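Re: [help] complex structure
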Amino acid sequence: MYMMNSGYNELRKELVQRLINEGIITSKKVAKAMSTVPRELFVPGKYKELAYMDHPLPIGWGQTISAPHMVAMMTEALDPEPGNIVLEIGAGSGYHAAVVAEIICHGPKYGHVFTIERIAPLAAFAQRNLVKAGYGDCVTVIVGDGSGGVPELAPFDRILITAAAPTIPKVLLNQLAVGGRIVAPVGHMWEQRLVIVKRISKDKIKYEYGTYCVFVPLIGKYGWREDRSRYSI
Ligand code: SAM
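Output below.
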């Protein structure tokens, strides 16, 4: 089946309305961003027709693009603002980075998203998708282990981890600006909880706990081991 562009626009609108009705999208900025970013450009060709089902989809190398409701929930929790400097750990398809870019790269305050991916061909996939969708200027894709952040680019106003982390390491907290937030699925390899970390001041950090969720593992120095057997530090 071939879907005309207008068909995707209609499906995108319906999905966003459904997420609003379900109370998952609560802000105008997230509604607008998810109504704008064409998710069909971030999924492999054979899954395009499924792009507006509220489901994760395979993107190759055993990885997934997260379900739209999870992207919405995490973006609401992240609360990005125009002009923010954002680090995403786990670029995958590039879709979530595009949703954040849509919010932070508008108006006179032009922010930037750095998104890091450990699987090089997936980083290339994300880069191609972001350019195709028009976010090439606002997003830089980096290849490597992002589990310890990217200290040389810090501080970040927002840090988004889109893979399951065993914990939020201190090295990442050190890269968060005052007034900044980290949103991450933290916990067991097979089940996590969304954690929101707020840096109130230089010395004060506040933790909030959201929904239970299931993400692919964060693999790296501050994540899980490659064989997924156990915590690597
Ligand atoms: N945000 C993505 C999107 O919009 O498509 C979905 C992310 S997917 C659920 C998790 C991604 O994290 C995978 O592509 C995986 O390879 C990547 N990943 C896992 N460990 C990583 C690490 N230490 N550094 C960077 N990327 C990592």
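The first strand starts at residue 57 and ends at 60.
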